[in-house]
Write a structure and sequence with these properties.
- The chain has 333 residues and is an alpha/beta fold.
- It folds into two domains: 45 residues; 273 residues, Ribonuclease Z/Hydroxyacylglutathione hydrolase-like (Metallo-beta-lactamase, Chain A).
- The chain has twelve helices and 13 strands.
- A hairpin with a 2-residue loop joins strand 2 and strand 3.
- Helix 1 crosses helix 2 and helix 8 runs parallel beside helix 11.
- It is globular.
- The protein starts with a helix and ends in a 7-residue tail after the last strand.
- The relative contact order is 0.11.
Length: 333
């Protein structure tokens, strides 16, 4: 021990409640305590890392066509290790992904790494963010085209986006912007899907689930099977037995919902519409009970004057007592 250290320890000894220990013993005690504290913190950090699942759900947008400033348009991310798989592209999808990457430390959601999107159906609130998702990451140096999977009509929509923004694209690739490294990455590689296995890589399998969403041709939900968790997303759907079957004990069921209590305040025409296209809290309680999900997450909530707690209360009153949350933008599960 050098003289400076001993002098410091003598000063500390004046404040120590156990001066009888002596300078050298006090120094050894302090060294032991510092080491124990460092070891404990390292153990806590390692434990936290061990409990973080490899397959996670990030709610990028939980909104509806209603212009709720607290909720961006419908968009969900499944994160498996270092990759992101998006479901739908509502308004604000790219900026919500960037915020999740920054605030939650999820590198897979950095804008340049948004490479895959799976569409449930082509309603505007689920797709109005597609031009942003296709073009903004390209402008910000996404190295590859966007892979798009969706029901019939998806290719026509993606081709229309490229045509609508053709002037912008031409100026960027033919002008002074340095585009040599990703000149063609503005393109969409579109696959129109059928129910069943639609995508597979070394981390995940993705299954499309046929659901009932009023008059839409082949609307789908999705089942993501990761290395450690299975997550099912309903998309927009009225009660669909296929969702119950697809979940069947899944780790997380993400399901749309509307307030059954507030439904009666809607005009008759809207009541008819919502009962054909969407799922009430009472109906979702039955789906949740039969699906056996480890956690039910509400999204695309139609509140009509109630709130998150109100929706949860309605579902509880309808007979579901399992794990349940009403999701908010940027929640991670």
């Amino acid at each position: 021990m050098n003289d400076t250290f001993l002098a410091g320890m003598r000063s500390l000894a004046l404040l120590c409640p156990f001066p009888i220990l002596g300078i050298r013993r006090l120094a050894l005690l302090c060294a032991f305590l510092v080491g124990a504290l460092a070891s404990g913190l390292a153990s806590l950090e390692a434990g936290a890392q061990e409990t973080t699942p490899r397959t996670r759900l990030v709610l990028l947008g939980t909104g509806t066509p209603n212009a709720d400033p607290e909720r961006s348009g419908p968009a969900t991310a499944i994160i498996v290790d270092d990759r992101a798989y998006l479901v739908d592209a509502g308004a604000g999808v790219v900026r919500r992904a960037a915020k999740a990457a920054r605030d939650h430390g999820i590198p897979a959601l950095r804008v340049q790494r948004l490479h895959h999107v799976f569409l449930t159906h082509l309603h505007s609130d689920h797709t109005v963010g597609l031009p942003d998702l296709l073009l903004s990451p390209w402008v910000l140096d996404r190295p590859v085209p966007l892979n798009v999977y969706g029901p019939p009509g998806t290719k026509k929509m993606m081709d229309g986006i490229i045509e609508a923004w053709s002037a912008d694209i031409n100026v960027r690739i033919d002008g002074p912007e340095p585009r040599d490294a990703n000149r063609d990455a503005y393109r969409a590689l579109t696959t129109e899907i059928e129910p069943g296995l639609v995508y597979e890589d070394d981390l995940v399998k993705v299954y499309a689930i046929l659901v009932d969403h009023g008059g839409w041709q082949q609307p789908v939900g999705y089942r993501f099977v990761g290395p450690d968790r299975t997550i099912v997303i309903s998309g927009d759907a009225r009660p669909s037995e296929s969702i119950v079957d697809a979940c069947s004990g899944c780790d997380i069921l993400v399901h749309e919902v509307y307030s059954a209590e507030r439904f009666t305040t809607r005009a008759p025409a809207w009541q008819q519409y919502h009962s054909r296209f969407h799922t009430s809290t009472v109906e979702l309680a039955d789906i949740a009970n039969r699906s056996g999900a480890g956690l039910v997450v509400l999204y695309h909530q139609l509140f009509w004057g109630t709130d998150d707690e109100g929706l949860v209360r309605e579902i509880r009153a309808a007979g579901y007592s399992g794990p349940l949350v009403s999701g908010k933008d940027l929640d991670v599960y």
